[in-house]
């Protein structure tokens, strides 16, 4: 048997998408940030915080490779999941796709404040780093307790911050 990915017509309400997405984003303090150089993909593990409804913020050195990549093209994705999950369990995680940028001025202060609320709000640490934000355009939710085994639900983030169901995919044996 070979596994295939099947798009289903199973719609998920905006309220349910919002509830599940918040739960998934708040479930773990670490994430994996994916960026691109002109020639290759790059990934970095880091701490992050949610700022506002869906924006994700992090602090980093301006000269790190992922920071250079964000400045160069602004495209990024973040994966959030609990790392202690075991194969065969009721797994969950979220993938976030969007535009990233370095924050300055008031936006940087607000981003650092959000980061400080989630972690230690130590000015001596926070002042050493630049703050970045990923503004999502899409979320891909994976929560087997909520949606069933091998099911991924993709939602678009509307301009007003609400989530809109886009499609549901399920892995099945053929």
Summed up, what is this model?
25% of the residues lie in helices and 45% in strands. With 174 residues, the chain is of the alpha+beta class.
Write the SSE topology.
Blueprint lengths: L2 E6 L5 H12 L4 E7 L4 E7 L1 E3 L3 E6 L4 H9 L1 E7 L10 E11 L2 H14 L4 H4 L3 E14 H4 L3 E7 L5 E11 L1
Please identify which CATH superfamily we are dealing with.
Electron Transport, Fmn-binding Protein, Chain A
Provide the succession of SSEs: EHEEEEHEEHHEHEE
Helix content range of the residues, please?
10-25%
Using only C-alpha atoms, the radius of gyration works out to 17 Å
Q: Estimate the strand proportion.
A: over 45%
State the end-to-end CA separation.
6 Å
Task: Give a structural overview.
The protein is α+β, with helices and mostly antiparallel strands and 174 residues long. The protein has a single domain (13-137), classed as Electron Transport, Fmn-binding Protein, Chain A (Pnp Oxidase, Chain A), CATH 2.30.110.10. The chain is built from five helices and ten strands. Strands 1, 2, 3, 4, 5, 6, 7, 8, 9 and 10 form a ten-stranded antiparallel β-sheet that branches. The radius of gyration is 17 Å and the shape is globular.
